[in-house]
Amino acid sequence: MSSIPISFSQRARHSVEAPISYLMEQGISNPDIISLAAGLVDQESLPREEIAEAISHLWKDPRRAKDALQYGTTPGHHALRGKIADRLRDMDRHALKGTMNADDRHPATAGRIVLGTGSQQLLYILAEVLLDPGDIVLGSAPGYFVYMGALASFGARIIPIDTDAGGMNLDHLESTLVDLERSNLLARVKFIYDVTYFNNPTGLSLAADRRRPLVELAERWSKTHRLLVLEDAAYRELRYHGNDEPSLLAYDPEGERVIYAGTFSKPLAPGIRTGYIIAPDDLLEQVIRQKGHHDFGSASLNQQLVLEMLESGAYDRHLATLRKVYSAKLAGMLDQLDQELGNERDRVRWTMPEGGLYVWMELPTSLSTTMDSSFFQHALSSGVLYVPGNFCYPDTDAGAPRHCLRLSFGHQSIDRCREGVTRLAGVIRQHLPSS
Amino acid sequence: MSSIPISFSQRARHSVEAPISYLMEQGISNPDIISLAAGLVDQESLPREEIAEAISHLWKDPRRAKDALQYGTTPGHHALRGKIADRLRDMDRHALKGTMNADDRHPATAGRIVLGTGSQQLLYILAEVLLDPGDIVLGSAPGYFVYMGALASFGARIIPIDTDAGGMNLDHLESTLVDLERSNLLARVKFIYDVTYFNNPTGLSLAADRRRPLVELAERWSKTHRLLVLEDAAYRELRYHGNDEPSLLAYDPEGERVIYAGTFSKPLAPGIRTGYIIAPDDLLEQVIRQKGHHDFGSASLNQQLVLEMLESGAYDRHLATLRKVYSAKLAGMLDQLDQELGNERDRVRWTMPEGGLYVWMELPTSLSTTMDSSFFQHALSSGVLYVPGNFCYPDTDAGAPRHCLRLSFGHQSIDRCREGVTRLAGVIRQHLPSS
After folding, report:
1. Which domains does chain A show, CATH number per domain?
2. What percent of chain B shows pLDDT beyond 90?
3. Residues 289-348 of A with CB under 8 A from B
4. Does B68 contact A at CB distance below 8 Å?
5. In what order do the strands lie in the sheet with B387-388?
6. Is B46–A70 a contact, with Cβ atoms under 8 angstroms apart?
7. Longest Cα pair distance anywhere in chain B, in angstroms?
């Protein structure tokens, strides 16, 4: 190799290897290890036949087939964007049991939507058009570590906002903003980020009675500039119990401050990598311009496939199947946790999500679950892998809890989920201080 | 709309609407206009049946079907990366009529390849990991305007390098580097960019006897840091006459300084949006890390489809068809140009490409073809659209020629290509000074 080094950009020089990469490699390279860490989706229920049918139907119309193989536009296929807007308005109307607000207004329209390579690409571009180094994002903590890594790569500071059983704690959010204003840092606060349905990693949702207040809080704190709220709704349709809640969009009828990110990766198939955001017009214009530089449009084929499956009803039928599959896996994991650790409930706690793909566990604070802990090594040698909870807090958060774990029931079969929990419980019992 | 503005990043605040957007809209919204501007590919030959067959075959293997629908890895499907590497080595060996070099070494391996959403996404990420504001890229001029726009969005300075019938002029390249060294700017020169086969917009390739010297020049000028060469080979396989030339990779056996970008958008189908780069190991590591933030991997489905078509031979069969289609269109366009303007050859010149999708025209220097020219308006009212040549030079190049045009024969039928040329020739004749 040449001894003369490449001169990288500041951006690249500050980038660090995501520690999660190691976890993923371990999970893939050793089949004896049960990875409750991987964010992959259920393998068995992937919609193989449904996709074949969708292509077959699509291909009967030569015009649509050719469109699927030609370049599209940067914001993406117009009919799919319209279909997504209709669907969102319907979901919100239904969640609100009828009328949205006095005028039945809702900001979702085809023109306010852009399609991307998963919602991740659009989350990235949002960061790109909003964040300079030193800018601030207020994020629920624990939170989605992949996006925290992307935000950090822009030199942004993520300030963690406490969460409880009802999701983001709005009192803590407000007091954080008060502190930032006192420190003259309000101008650096660009947006609030929350996974509002079945948060990754806790599985818990933003409570119904915090939704309108969150949007109103953002409006109230739009002092020097507009404070935006980025609602990541990746898991919204993966609900196994209870009723859907209205999105934050429903409380932003003019489309001024809420950005809603959705994806077909979780509820349909990750291999299709199609997601979307709905955003205020002036923001969307910048996102589209930036996406023009990235790829001038995601794959047409994938967009046509999703549209076809939405139109034919195959998407909804698949979703119904998927809900049953995941519901059973979640029940299996919770049941096994109860069997194994039910008598340790005063020392070991876990969430009871109504949807999503994750369960969040808290051990006694004296017990570290970090990657360099003896607990982690013991779990690995016992053949089970989890995401250490500290990954779900900003790197800069020195006080972040180090005694938590994220468990995913997405990828493994019910039996493997149960076996994984059993292995993990064995490790936990060994590490718990004798009572 | 809220009166309180969004606080965008520096990046977004400096971004400008690409003027080409207007052209594209005109071409799409008015079917009476023959757009010789659009970069779309031939509609009739899109491989509808071949894709249906590929899916059908792929779907027979449940394992591969599931892989196509699941998340993949950030660098992309390993078998496809291996297939691409094999193919490139074979192409270069064939172009060199046997042995590559003393040791028959070639840098293309699966491990040095990353797949992306088109090659554009990877060109973007390369800029992201290499360029800080004020950094310099040396690019053949005229050159690919979409990438020049992306580079400019990073605040990079693109210094145009003259081209002639043999592509990039290496003497001008060298003298530019001498000047930059004298100005103490050598440390800012990150890479040389060239579309080495059938350049967009000229249709001309880098001459065989400039290929090794270009790589050697980059090595010689790697003084404070490694000077990289980005070889954009998007059109390589769209050759209609003559023999393939070895890539620059063939002259960089250790994989130290050449980045090779390829795509399946042009030779297969843009709707699949799958491209790749081969890059030095230390650079690729940064690209993959950055792509992890963007999307942690492009769509698996599309990668499996391309792999299947490479393995079955469908890709090569389609390419043979496509070469015939485009060869006829190119011949039609050149013939019509000759019929219409053959007797103006001393004042109106155009290139005679052996491949690609574009013909480049030069009018007398007194004649402006820019979007605000009377010539452009006259062409529009005559129902023909072209890309004004000035778009193919960096914005900052005040001395850029304003009397050229790019004509694409990619999207229109032969008859429409001919009719478009006839309309354009009418406008040209009216604007030529009377002789």
Report:
1. 10-46+317-431 (3.90.1150.10), 71-312 (3.40.640.10)
2. 89
3. 289-290, 292-302, 304
4. yes
5. B349-350, B358-362, B404-408, B387-388
6. yes
7. 71
